[in-house]
Amino acid sequence: MGEEQRPATARAGYRMVKRAHHVDETRQRIVAATVDLHGTVGPANTTISAIAKAAGVTRATVYHHFPDLDALFTACTAHWGARQQMPDLAGWQEITGPQDRVRAALTDLYRFYGEAEPMLALTTRDREALPAFVRERNQQTARSQLDVLLSAWPASQRTRKRRALLGHAIAFATWRSLCVDQGLPQHDAVAAMTRMVVDC
């Protein structure tokens, strides 16, 4: 049966579904274009005009779907995160010994940093261009990682010094300095940072 032979209600429903699909497809193109720009030129250099051009839409269409940066970044971080193997904090907590937990956590983190390095390098460089809620979420993630690692030690050994060294060991900048700038193999970087934290 051709569209002209369908009942009016069926034709209207078909058009609504088709339009909804088109709207969703347009939204996804905008999100994908933004993520790609964040990972190639960085958030600070990602303009609405550049997003519109990369997505093949107008600036007005971008604003229609995402009226502010918070909405756009929320969609983009979800899109990007869904495609990553994120660090497994719950898995870290299952490891009881402090040294074993730190070693496993750093292996997991440094693996993630290596896989996500282009995006993480640019978003770290452009941190001031990120919305406040993204910066706060990143800080909360680092605090949660620290808390999980430090909790492997008895309370009397959860010193300010150990917390500071753990914070240094889990930082993206530390991994990048050791493994990218200095060319240290990741397993050697993990071993060195684990010894530093355990022996302090």
What's the β-strand tally?
A: 0
SSE succession: HHHHHHHHHH
Radius of gyration: 23 Å
> Low-confidence stretches at least 5 residues in length (pLDDT < 50)?
10-18
Q: Helix share of residues?
A: over 70%
The percent range for strand residues is: under 5%
The helix/strand class is mainly alpha
Query: What best-fitting shape do the alpha-carbon axes yield?
Result: elongated
Number of helices: 10
Distance between the termini: 77 Å
Mean pLDDT: 91
Largest sheet: none
Question: What is the count of distinct domains?
Answer: 2
Outline the structure in words.
- The structure is a single chain.
- By secondary structure, the chain is mainly alpha-helical.
- It folds into two domains: 3-81, Tetracycline Repressor, domain 2 (Orthogonal Bundle), CATH 1.10.357.10; 89-198, no CATH class.
- It is built from ten helices and no strands.
- Helix 7 (132-150) crosses helix 8.
- The longest helix is centred in the N-terminal third of the chain and has 33 residues, at 8-40.
- It is elongated, with a radius of gyration of 23 Å.
